[in-house]
Each structure stands twice: as structure tokens, then as C-alpha cells.
Write a structure and sequence with these properties.
- The protein has 20 helices and 27 strands.
- It is an alpha+beta fold.
- The strands form 7 sheets. It has an 11-stranded mixed β-sheet, sandwiched between helices. A 5-stranded mixed β-sheet has the order 20-19-21-22-23, sandwiched between helices.
- Strand 3 and strand 4 form a beta hairpin.
- Helix 4 runs antiparallel to helix 5.
- The longest helix is centred in the C-terminal third of the chain and has 26 residues.
């Protein structure tokens, strides 16, 4: 049996080179419950005697590579930030080099040189995140309280939800991030179809003349539009580059879809003739482009994914009812799927959608006390019908313009999900939307080292997984035998998998599984067998409820009512001085005045998030907290993303 030399420090200031014992003499190398390795480590430490340990090439290399990957992600996030912190970048690069210096064959002086920097970073950040099963010693994420924006970006990188693209302002949605959007899309698409809408698809390109037909609409989107002017490229002189071909200029420039009202209403004009054609309800899942200067992954990007619904109706009442209905659909999906409570309301005239008579909105409160507009539903009146001459013959054979709505949510909801539940250790996912709800980590050295024991263990694991799948649990088994359980646990913590389930030989013998919740708390045992699927499903349901309850408490605690503008301004100013922590939301009596609204925004950076639907009756008899005039609304103010 081969031997490997390994340096181990067991006494203060003493370095010893030991000969590694044969595998059979030292245990299987699996976590401690499988072979008792933990007891040997603890005993050796108490006795201060040399301990024969696994070599980096056999065990530690996988953990080290995980640390290197996390450090590399951090460097990329810092370099991609809008405002670059050169000192932080230098420290992160030093840490990355130090970790790479630990790789087998790396010059030892490099590792030694970088060690102080790495230790300083750990002390500055209060230690690494991601405990709970083998994550100790790894570089933690930036704490939310230290830099919420950087924390958000690091969570996305660590969970592998999205990455930078070579196109400024655009992101690459990675498979895990896309799986979240797919789960959300599936839940929402079912409800949209239940409302009577049908899916369709409309062109990505819109003639520029279409956009100018609705004056308010063009004013609202003109500065965000990307424009196509040529249909062909040609090689430059020398053939080393390409350029637009002057002979291929379009007769009319095309807008890359910022939203589809104009294109859809052009088609509605062809499809609607009689009251028998109404209501007409279509929905489109698509990408749109709005050229943003300041971008954040999922929250604001030049290109994003969304759904947009568009409806035409014979009466105003039916259109308003549809707009309100879809707002309720969005609120229900946020609550039931994302475990994220929202406030339903109406936007102020200043904040409403360009071309709408009214914009209904759902507003969520993030952990840092900032609001996030999470979905909108617009009552468009007859504005687009008149602009595109969409009329119908009513039952009295009179020509009437139709009444309209449009409504949509986007991948911004993924950003809302991240900021609603995640913690300083990484992503936290509500089970209802988690692509993988539970992961089983068999504690085994693999099929090559102990084939009989491994086969027996995997048969046990497969039976438990079959029970879970029969109960509707989305479960996977981690069979990467070349990766230690510790790094696996660390990875699943960062990725937000709701339940992590361990099963080793001792667990099999005891007829149980060991379960850890991503939301924290002690590990606990579950009896194995046919009932394990139902027990895991019940755990997931309880976790979903707990996340919703915590978010509801945060929204309630983070919303205060006041009649004093000074109180709100002082609270916002204090929060500004506190860094990443916001002041929450303020429910106030308000006299609707666009000039006053702008002044408050200039003074405090707070905006009217909405006029909450369930609070408007309370404005009667009160005076505006800013102007002292009789209140027309109850308004919800707050800082927002």
C-alpha cells in the first residue's frame, strides 16, 4: 500500500513530518459518524500527540478548490461593482493567491506571504459564513449590515444564479437561476390561463412609428429604447472588423421591444370587430430591452425576462375588474410561492405607467428596509384603443372604442426572493420555489473503496428517496464521491437548498436519516421507511410557513404610521447614516401634489410607493403630513430599489 508524507502541527511551534498510515489503519476518510474519525481527532488534540491525517491530494484538495472558487467569485463581484473599491479588490486578490499557494506544488513562500492578508480579511469580516456542516474556515460573504449591495451580488455569485455577460448591462442567467424563474413562471402561467388569457408571441422589433402613436407612451420609453437602423454588416477595409453597411440602412428604424403595447394594439385592430370578439385576453412570455445606465442583476438590467398580459373589453368596469384581478394573482403568487407578503395599491399620477389611467402595484419590503416594486397591472382606459383605432360594433350596432389593461412581472421577482429570505451564509429558498427541495448526501467513501458497504447504503438511500418522490418532494442524491461531505454541505448552504439529509452506515443501521434545515436550528433525526416522504413534505410545508411568517412580521414591524413629515425625514436621514439599513415604510395622510412629491424625493430620496388599497378610507378628516391641506389619500412612502 502506498504512503504519502504529510506535515502536521500538533504542538505549539513544532512542525512534524509523518508517514501516512495505510487507509485501513486510519479509517475511511468519511465524516465522523461513519467511522469514528471525529473521536480520534478530538482525542489526539486533547493529548497533544501527532495525528495521522488525510493528505491534501486525497481529501483536502476538494475543500481547498471550493475555497478558491468562492474567493474567485468574490474578486469578480468586486471588479464588476459600479463603484470599485481598489483596496477591497487588492485584499480579495491577495486572498485568492494565498489559497492558490496552498495547492500541491505551489511555492510555500507564496502561501506564507498571503496568510496575513487572509487572516486580516477574516477578522475584518467577523469570520467566514456558512457553518452548519463542514463550512468552517471558508471565506464568508460580506455581511448584510456591512454592505447590502455587495452582499446581494455575492449571494448571486455563490449560488450560481447569474453571471456577468460581455454585453454591458446584461446578465447571463445560469441554470439554477433559470430553474427559479421556470418554477415561478409555471406557477404564474397556470393562474394566468385560469383568468381566461391565452399565450401568444409578438415580434421583438417594433417600427418606430408605432411608438409615437401614443404620446405619453413614447415620452415614457424614448430614453430607454435600443434602435436598429441597418439589416446587414460588411467587412472593413483589410477585413479585420465589421461595420454597418451604408447600403443596408432600413427605410424605417426598428425599436427593440421595451414593452409590446404598440405592437399588440396594432394586431388587436385587425382582430376585434364585434362585441362578440370581446373580451380578448393574451399573454406573452418574452424578453424586453430597456437601456439602463445603472444595473443590478435581476433587479435592473438592459435586457430581462418577463410576462406581459394585454386585454381588451367592452366596458370600463370589466377592464378595471381585470386589472384588479391580475394584481390579486400577482400578490397570491408572491405570498404562496415566494413566501413574500406585499402591499397592494395604486401608483400616484407621477409614478404611473406611461399611457395608463391607473397603475396598480404590489410593493414588497426587503430586509434592508427598502421597498421593491414587484409587479404592476395597468388600467389603460381607451388611450391605446384611440391611438390605434381599435373599435367594436356593440349590440346596438354602434361603434365603440374598447377599454384596455396590461399587466406584467419580470425576473425582478428573483431579486426580490433573494433579498427577502437570504442570510449572511448565502441563498435561502422557500421550498415552493426551490428547484431542489431536499438533497441526500450519502456518507460513503464511494463504490471503489468499500463496494459491499456502499451498495448496501445506496440501496437504503434509494428506498428513502423513492418515498420522498412519491410524496411530491423534489429531491436529488449527491453521488460525487471525489468531494468530501463538508464541501458539499457548504455548497448546498450557499445555494439555499431547504433540507440537507445525511445517511451513513450508522444511520442505516439505526433506521434513520439526519436532517438539517437551511433556515437553521439543530440537526434532527427522522425514522427511515415508507413514511419518510410524508415527514419530509411536512417539514417543507412548515419551513414555507415559517419563512412567510418572518417576512410578514418584517413588513408589519417595518411599516410605521405618522402625521409628521419631520419624523419621517429624520428617520430616513438616520437610516442613511447607518449605511445599508433602511428606515422602512411610512403610511401618511397625503394631499396629492406632484410638486410636493418631487420636493420630498429631493429632500429624502423617498418616493410614494403606492396608495394602499385597504387604507384609503382613513384619509377622510385628516390633513396632509407635508402641506397641511385636507388629505386626499393615505400614501405609503419609502426608499426603493
Amino acid at each position: 500500500m502506498s504512503t504519502i508524507l504529510l506535515a502536521v502541527t500538533m504542538l505549539p511551534g513544532v512542525m512534524r513530518v509523518l508517514q501516512r498510515a495505510p487507509l485501513a489503519a486510519r479509517g475511511c476518510g468519511a465524516p465522523h459518524r461513519a467511522c469514528g474519525g471525529g473521536a480520534r481527532v478530538a482525542a489526539a488534540a486533547r493529548q497533544r500527540r501527532p495525528l495521522v491525517m488525510a493528505a491534501a491530494a486525497d481529501v483536502d484538495l476538494a475543500a481547498l478548490e471550493a475555497e478558491i472558487k468562492a474567493a474567485g467569485d468574490r474578486v469578480r463581484v468586486l471588479k464588476a461593482a459600479e463603484t470599485k473599491d481598489e483596496a477591497a479588490i487588492a485584499a480579495a486578490v491577495a486572498e485568492l493567491l494565498e489559497l492558490k499557494g496552498r495547492l500541491p506544488g505551489a511555492p510555500p513562500e507564496k502561501a506564507k506571504k498571503g496568510k496575513g492578508k487572509q487572516q486580516q480579511q477574516q477578522q475584518k469580516k467577523g469570520g467566514g459564513g456558512g457553518g452548519g456542516g463542514g463550512g468552517s474556515g471558508r471565506q464568508g460573504l460580506t455581511p448584510r449590515a456591512a454592505d447590502y449591495s455587495l452582499w446581494y451580488q455575492e449571494v448571486i455569485q455563490a449560488a450560481e444564479l447569474a453571471d456577468q455577460s460581455p454585453v454591458k448591462g446584461c446578465m447571463v442567467i445560469r441554470p439554477t437561476g433559470m430553474a427559479l424563474w421556470d418554477a415561478l413562471r409555471s406557477a404564474l402561467d397556470e393562474r394566468i390561463k385560469e383568468s381566461g388569457a391565452q399565450n401568444a408571441y409578438f415580434p421583438l422589433f417594433i417600427p418606430v412609428s408605432f411608438l409615437s402613436k401614443e404620446a405619453e407612451h413614447v415620452e415614457g420609453f424614448a430614453k430607454e429604447c435600443a434602435v436598429v437602423t441597418h439589416h446587414r454588416l460588411r467587412s472593413t477595409e483589410g477585413g479585420k472588423a465589421v461595420e454597418p453597411d451604408p447600403d443596408a440602412e432600413l427605410e424605417e428604424p426598428l425599436i427593440v421591444r421595451p414593452t409590446s403595447e404598440t405592437m399588440i394594439w396594432h394586431m388587436f385592430q385587425k382582430w376585434i370587430m364585434s362585441y362578440r370578439d370581446l373580451p380578448l385576453k393574451v399573454n406573452q412570455w418574452a424578453n424586453v430591452v430597456r437601456w439602463e445606465l445603472r444595473t443590478r442583476p435581476f433587479l435592473r438590467s438592459a435586457e430581462f425576462l418577463w410576462q406581459e398580459g394585454h386585454t381588451a373589453h367592452a366596458t370600463r368596469e370589466e377592464a378595471v375588474e381585470t386589472a384588479r384581478q391580475m394584481l390579486d394573482v400577482y400578490a397570491d403568487v408572491c405570498r404562496d410561492v415566494l413566501a413574500m407578503p406585499v402591499v397592494k395599491g395604486v401608483k400616484s399620477p407621477t409614478e404611473r405607467f406611461a399611457g395608463a389611467d391607473d397603475t396598480f402595484t404590489i410593493e414588497a419590503l426587503m430586509q434592508n428596509g427598502w421597498a421593491l416594486q414587484s409587479g404592476t397591472s395597468h388600467f389603460l382606459g381607451q388611450n391605446f384603443a384611440k391611438a390605434f383605432d381599435v373599435t367594436f360594433s356593440d349590440d346596438a350596432n354602434q361603434q365603440q372604442h374598447v377599454w384596455a389593461t396590461s399587466w406584467g412581472v419580470s425576473t425582478r421577482l428573483v431579486g426580490a426572493l433573494i433579498m427577502s429570505h437570504s442570510d449572511d451564509s448565502g441563498l435561502v429558498l422557500p421550498p415552493a420555489v426551490a428547484p431542489t427541495q431536499a438533497v441526500v448526501v450519502p456518507i460513503s467513501p464511494g463504490p471503489d473503496k468499500q463496494p459491499e458497504q456502499h451498495a448496501e447504503l445506496m440501496a437504503f438511500v434509494d428506498a428513502q428517496v423513492a418515498s420522498m418522490r412519491a410524496a411530491g418532494v423534489r429531491v436529488s442524491i449527491d453521488t460525487r464521491w471525489n468531494v468530501r461531505p463538508g464541501p458539499k454541505f457548504f455548497e448546498y448552504e450557499r445555494k439555499g437548498v431547504p433540507l440537507r439529509i445525511e445517511a451513513g452506515p450508522r444511520d442505516m443501521a439505526a433506521g434513520k436519516l439526519v436532517v438539517a434545515r437551511r433556515t437553521g436550528g439543530d440537526k434532527f433525526d427522522l425514522p427511515a421507511g415508507e413514511g419518510v416522504g410524508g415527514a419530509i413534505a411536512a417539514e417543507l410545508d412548515a419551513m414555507q410557513g415559517a419563512l412567510l411568517a418572518a417576512a410578514e412580521a418584517r413588513l408589519s414591524d417595518g411599516t410605521r404610521e405618522t402625521d409628521s413629515y419631520a419624523e419621517m425625514a429624520d428617520a430616513l436621514a438616520a437610516a442613511e447614516g447607518a449605511g445599508s439599513v433602511g428606515a422602512g415604510l411610512f403610511l401618511v395622510p397625503w394631499f396629492d401634489d406632484a410638486a410636493a412629491e418631487k420636493s420630498i424625493k429631493d429632500e429624502t430620496k423617498a418616493t410614494i410607493r403606492c396608495f394602499p388599497l385597504g387604507e384609503q378610507h382613513r384619509a377622510e378628516g385628516r390633513v396632509c403630513f407635508y402641506s397641511g391641506k385636507p388629505a386626499t389619500h393615505m400614501a405609503l412612502f419609502g426608499r426603493a430599489f
